[in-house]
């Protein structure tokens, strides 16, 4: 019987599998950030251990850094402790660190791929749930807990139970202007926030294959938001072209060998999945969330759903609760919903193509009165590229704030927080109650939709002139 992509990567990383015990997997790359690593390093220190493979471990500062200033003095006392601790730990244990003054610093899931740290067919872990992003390269990538971070540091392995396998095929092509974010929101809208639980999901189909690497990362990034363990996309010419020449990608003869191995990394025709889901790409309209989980999604031309239309009482109650928090009435047209904050950034949508897509709608326009809009590039390299292209000027002339790289307003862990009652058009991946600040309301959407909302002051259907 054939194997899935997941099984191929799993099998090639299996160190030990014994009846009655959790299998042990080899870890190819370990990414580290300031929030989930301090206890792991302390654990190593008190056990008198070293890192098993420091050359496969890469650290960055992203979650609680300031996007206004690269000075350490700009940090809150708590953030300062975490950032200083990461620096000291990386020095002591010999880990490569991109600190806030380094030009490659950025959100861990933006920085890893762009430096070629992320490569196909490897197991990649990080103490962060959105590690799924790296699955876009055909890697098996998932988030781990702090005690597992310590285990990986000490042994370069991880105990893992094998997941079930799901295939999500997006057939055909999307219409003009429909982005990877719309595709993944449509998928989560269909599956619900726990539709992928227990599974590693392989995304495939023409619409997925047609995406750039950046688009594929957006899709895999949100696999976790439907409960999946990881998301994966088989590597192809698009993947190899993206990786070629990147700093940590293989070079010369190693490159040729790597590519010929990577070409084998696809699901065999006769492989068996535990579940299969199909979506028709041509039916996907621009999407946005109306509620308080990423599965509470509608197309921009649809109204806010009504609890009365929902037969399942548990779901009906969750719709009522979400409507109450988000302060919207059932039946309201999404295009009538006003916003007062806009966040373009996060590991979902802060790459150069995202910023270009947002700039299209910002160009020559002005941020609507009463709206505050910020653009936060995902890394120093994205920022640099955007500035070469003049995107920073387009945004600033339109009244957007142009910031330094970091997680920023994606989560309320740094200075970029929403106020209670704020309604934000956000390109991030989570819209839970209070995610961007206590009492604030988040609507997830694509960078193009977010920029359009910023200049109009309410959500708009970007398929038509506005
Ligand atoms: C802080 C970190 C542990 C967390 C995660 O794991 O996802 C964060 O990145 C998030 O997006 O909520
Ligand atoms: S950008 Fe947001 S989702 Fe991504 S790692 Fe940072 S906090 Fe988590």
UniProtKB/TrEMBL annotation:
Binding-site positions, [4Fe-4S] cluster: 347, 407, 410
All copies of domain Aconitase/3-isopropylmalate dehydratase large subunit alpha/beta/alpha, residue ranges: 7-457
CDD domains: IPMI
Pathway: Amino-acid biosynthesis; L-leucine biosynthesis; L-leucine from 3-methyl-2-oxobutanoate: step 2/4
Gene3D superfamilies: Aconitase, domain 3 (3.30.499.10)
InterPro entries assigned to the protein according to its UniProt record, in alphabetical order: 3-IsopropMal_deHydase_lsu, Acnase/IPM_dHydase_lsu_aba_1/3, Acoase/IPM_deHydtase_lsu_aba, Aconitase_4Fe-4S_BS, Aconitase_4Fe-4S_dom, IPM_dehydratase_rel_enz, IPMI_cat
Cofactor(s) required, per the database record: [4Fe-4S] cluster
GO MF, one example: 3-isopropylmalate dehydratase activity
Top-level taxon in the UniProt lineage: Bacteria
Role description: Catalyzes the isomerization between 2-isopropylmalate and 3-isopropylmalate, via the formation of 2-isopropylmaleate.
Protein name: 3-isopropylmalate dehydratase large subunit
């Amino acid at each position: 019987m054939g194997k899935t992509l997941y099984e191929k990567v799993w099998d090639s990383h299996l160190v030990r599998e014994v009846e009655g015990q959790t299998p042990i997997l080899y870890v190819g790359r370990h990414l580290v950030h300031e929030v989930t690593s301090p206890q792991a390093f302390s654990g190593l220190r008190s056990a008198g251990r070293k890192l098993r493979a420091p050359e496969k471990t890469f650290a960055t500062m992203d979650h609680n850094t300031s996007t206004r200033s690269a000075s350490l003095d700009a940090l809150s006392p708590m953030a300062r402790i975490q950032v200083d601790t990461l620096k000291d730990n990386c020095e002591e244990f010999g880990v490569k660190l991109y600190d806030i003054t380094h030009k490659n610093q950025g959100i861990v899931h933006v920085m890893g791929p762009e430096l070629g740290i992320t490569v196909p067919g490897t197991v990649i872990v990080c103490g962060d749930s959105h590690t799924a992003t790296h699955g876009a390269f055909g890697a098996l990538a998932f988030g781990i807990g702090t005690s597992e971070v310590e285990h990986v540091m000490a042994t370069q392995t991880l105990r893992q139970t094998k997941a079930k396998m799901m295939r999500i095929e997006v057939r055909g092509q999307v219409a003009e202007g429909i982005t990877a974010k719309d595709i993944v929101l449509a998928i989560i809208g269909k599956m619900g926030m726990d539709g992928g639980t227990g599974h590693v999901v392989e995304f495939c189909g023409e619409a997925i294959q047609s995406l750039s690497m950046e688009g594929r990362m957006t899709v895999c990034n949100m696999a976790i938001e439907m409960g999946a363990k990881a998301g994966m996309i088989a590597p192809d010419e698009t993947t190899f072209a993206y990786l070629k020449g990147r700093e940590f990608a293989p070079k010369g003869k190693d490159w040729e060998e790597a590519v010929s191995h990577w070409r084998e990394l696809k699901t065999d025709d006769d492989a068996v999945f535990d579940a299969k889901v199909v979506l028709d790409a041509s039916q996907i309209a621009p999407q946005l969330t109306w509620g308080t989980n990423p599965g509470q999604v509608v197309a921009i031309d649809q109204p806010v759903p009504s609890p009365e239309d929902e037969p399942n009482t548990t779901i009906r109650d969750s719709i009522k609760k979400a409507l109450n928090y988000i302060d919207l009435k059932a039946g309201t047209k999404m295009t009538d919903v006003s916003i007062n904050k806009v966040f373009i950034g996060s590991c979902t949508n802060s790459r150069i193509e995202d910023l270009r897509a947002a700039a299209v709608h910002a160009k020559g326009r002005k941020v609507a009165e009463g709206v505050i809009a910020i653009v936060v590039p995902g890394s120093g390299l994205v920022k640099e590229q955007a500035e070469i292209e003049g995107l920073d000027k387009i945004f600033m002339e339109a009244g957007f704030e142009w910031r330094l790289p970091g997680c920023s307003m994606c989560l309320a862990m740094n200075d970029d927080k929403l106020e209670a009652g704020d309604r934000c058009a956000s390109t991030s991946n989570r819209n839970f109650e209070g995610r961007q600040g206590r009492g604030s309301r988040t609507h997830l959407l694509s960078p193009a939709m977010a920029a359009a909302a910023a200049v109009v002051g309410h959500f708009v259907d970007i398929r038509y002139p506005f």
